[in-house]
Amino acid sequence: MKQSLFFVVSILLVFPFWTFGQDKDIIMTVNGPIAAKEMGITLMHEHVLVDFAGAAAYNPNRWNKEEVIEHVLPYLNEIKAYGCKTFVECTPSYIGKDPVLLKKISEATGIHLLTNTGFYGAGNNKYIPYFAFTESADQLAERWINEWRNGIEGTGIKPGFIKIGVDGGTLSEMHQKLITAASRTHLATGLVILSHTGPSLPAFEQVEILRKEGVRPDAFVWTHAQAESDPEIHAKVARMGAWVALDGLNDSNVNDYVRMIVAMKNRSMLHRVLLSHDAGWYTPGEENGGDFRGFTTLFEKLIPALRTANFTDEDIHQLIVNNPAEAFQVKIRKISQNND
Q: Which of 113, 98, 89 is nearest to 30 (CA)?
């Protein structure tokens, strides 16, 4: 597919040389690159801090880093005790993304943390900065590529993935622009795209835009796919190559998750499933950070339930180690002439 000269140059100049070599499967953490094999047990969609004030009122001075760290550290140490080595922090720009905070937490716990680039359009664009409404997809992509090249907001900390968000119906013009910008950012950086999506309609529409932009579906994570109840739809998206993220796990829905995961296994699609809680959520302005939810349900309840459902150690390793390591590798997934 024909791309603008800007993106051809970006791919040549921005994408690090080390991703092209053999045995160089890289994950980008807030502390720099690690080998994918070092990722280990991974929670692929969680939050440390989320601020819902909206882009117009966004101000990182609304929280104190040291207070947040003191509050959340015990929760991270809990999952570390279960062997969790990597925590993908999915808070987007203008909703509380704080790379410096995450770096401090990573250094305090020894857990690898990933942060992101991109803009979040779900919630009727409340968290989209004003300039994004008039900028083109190329201009947005250039901003996100610059964060990969130079670090986020002058911190030198690089994103490990692209995070966008769309609403649940057919894609609006703005949300089409977001996924287009994310596609072009992927082609210049190799970062995987996590899109807050939910229902299957916008998932299919986003995959179609990816394909038009020359990006393979395996560069796309259908976030909150548990909003779709039909297991055959999950399998259909997985067969296209995209990642199906069942990432709203909590103590009350474990049986539902077992059912969905079993359905994917029965359809030979376990290798396309990602799991997480979408938990945490220290909230500035609320007493003691609000109602913070921990990250242990997967370890304490889901994995035992899967074992009861005759899942092997190999199956579980596939879900929480192999799949995240493959999904978050920094590599360009470009449609070749031999692809459909």
A: 113
Length of the chain: 340
pLDDT of residue 19: 38
Q: How far is CA 272 from CA 239, 316, 327, in A?
A: 8, 13, 9
Could you tell me the CA-to-CA distances from 135 to 130, 140, 143 in Å, in that order? 9, 7, 10
Tokens 């953490």 appear where? 29
Residue showing tokens 């995240």 = 324
- The per-residue pLDDT for 337 is 66
Q: Which residues contact 292 (CB under 8 A, 6 or more apart)?
A: 71, 72, 75, 280, 281, 282
Give mean pLDDT in consecutive 10-residue pieces for the chain, a chain of 340 residues.
41 38 76 98 98 94 96 98 98 97 98 98 97 98 98 97 98 98 98 98 98 98 97 98 98 98 98 98 94 98 98 98 98 80
Q: How many CA atoms lie within 13 A of 279 on its CB side?
A: 19
What string of H, E and C letters represents the secondary structure of the chain? CCCCHHHHHHHHHHCCHHHCCCCCCEEEECCEEEEHHHCCEEEEEECCECCCCCHHHCCHHHCCHHHHHHHHHHHHHHHHHCCEEEEEECCCCCCCCCHHHHHHHHHHHCCEEECEECCECCCCCCCCCHHHHCCCHHHHHHHHHHHHHHCHHHCCCCCCEEEEECCCCCCCHHHHHHHHHHHHHHHHHCCCEEEECCCHHHHHHHHHHHHHCCECHHHEEEECHHHCCCHHHHHHHHHHCCEEEECCCCCCCHHHHHHHHHHHHHCCCHHHEEECCCCECECCCCHHHCCCECCCHHHHHHHHHHHHCCCCHHHHHHHHHHHHHHHCCCCCCECCCCCC
CA angle 68, 145, 193 (to 5 degrees): 70
Distance CA 233, CA 199 (A): 10
Query: pLDDT per residue over 2-60, tens digit each?
Result: 444 344 334 333 444 333 333 479 999 999 999 999 999 999 999 999 999 999 999 99
